[in-house]
Amino acid sequence: MSLYHYASPATFYPLAGRLVPWFAALAVVFAAVGLYLSFFVAPTDFQQGEGYRIIFIHVPAAWMSMFIYIVMAFWSAIGLAWNTRLSFVMARALAPTGAMFTFLALWTGALWGKPMWGAWWVWDARLTSELILLFLYVGYMALQAAIDDPRRADRAGALLNLVGVINVPIIYFSVKWWNTLHQGASVSLTRAPSMAQVMLWGMLVMALAAWMYTIAVALARARTLILERERQTEWARAVLKEQA
Amino acid sequence: MLRFLIAVIRRDILLAARRRGDWLTAQFFFVMVTSLFPLGIGPEPAMLRTIGPGVVWVAALLACLLSLGRLYADDHRDGSLEQLLLAPYSNALLALGKAIAHWIINGIPLLLIAPVLGIQFGLPADALVVLVLSLAIGTPVLSLLGGIGAALTLGLRGGGVLITLLILPLYVPVLIFGAGAVDGTLSGTGAEAHLSLLGAVLVMALLVAPWISALALRVSVE
Amino acid sequence: MIWESWDAFWAMGGYALYVWGSFGATLACIVGEVWRVRRQRRQVISRLRRLQRFDSQ
For chain A, what is the domain count? Predict the structure, then answer.
């Protein structure tokens, strides 16, 4: 009963509403600690000066962009296997945030590359894979937007998501292979500084903040999606009355 | 089972033979796109030889996408797709047959045209052989993966543009290994590794893509 | 303390454009996304309420 209980939209909607502020608050706390670590505790890098501090945003953003795609695939697989509408909603609610983190990973990568490599864009294996990941997110969202029937949109998006997640390792491998053949940039943002303990902690705390933020935003987005889809039901009508 | 597969393939080839105009469009598109590159970049032979493999491969991807939009659309419109899906065989078999037919109709002509285009870019004979070989292994993957996109976007407004958005990122490994094989021959590092990786991708696509296409068809048609 | 003054902090050892460009873009994205999620919620609720009134009439 318990799992199915929480998977029912009528239970999930108010529960998510109560959870969002908590996750948002946690995100703020972690972000504050993370920013303190990245700007006031982590020492200056002897090679890259202060410019390396970009990794505290770049690396967590890159992690999130990949994790979110995998989490989406997890929800998609559950949705297809057990036909649970809520998991499709979760996958859909996560996509824009995943795309945002992918964009940020690219943006910060470019801002880091300019002073370090002397160019805004280098066809480095990581940056290139990240760009293709952004294309995958865009494709997923475009497909969802093009289909009016939510049932079909859910399933079609889930299938595309699963095909994408099978492809991500192949794409990453092929891009890496291509990059080594063409002797691309050898310095990488994540490898460059001799990873001091405090830097690792900074990145981990920032990643935690990003996770909490993602959960809060995805839950809020899922609430809106659920309300829209369940508008004919008793509980949704009651919720709408309350909003007056 | 094999009979059903062959029937699906034959049907598509017959239909394509009746509408030769549509079929020629995709082939001429392939020729024109590749011919535009020297005009945009300049006739310098050394430069053309370096970009040649990549240009031919990218044009092949685009030409393949151009014809994919109609893979299921015509059958969907006249209702025969529903009939085919109700046939007492696995829908994956139908998707496999459709992809094979698409490859025979659109992939094999590319293999025949590609050497001519390669000569335009000044590729030497051994590179031309590898180019055809890489296209022979790679284009079936394009048809198989493209079938998933065609099934997902079936009957949607703007489906033609949407399919490029969905499928092009998935084509990246094929492009890298395919063009890389020809580059390897040109630079003397050899093409075997690229071609065997391309072969591995083909095997995976053969095993996975028909099933996913079948699921996607059921989602889109129901 | 690693920073001698606030000026030194904002200058980021000459990397101000890159460091603040990264953190600023992140902040802008987050603020924008939160704003969009809220606006979407308001819009959906007002639309559904209108639908509901229409149905009950």
Answer: 1
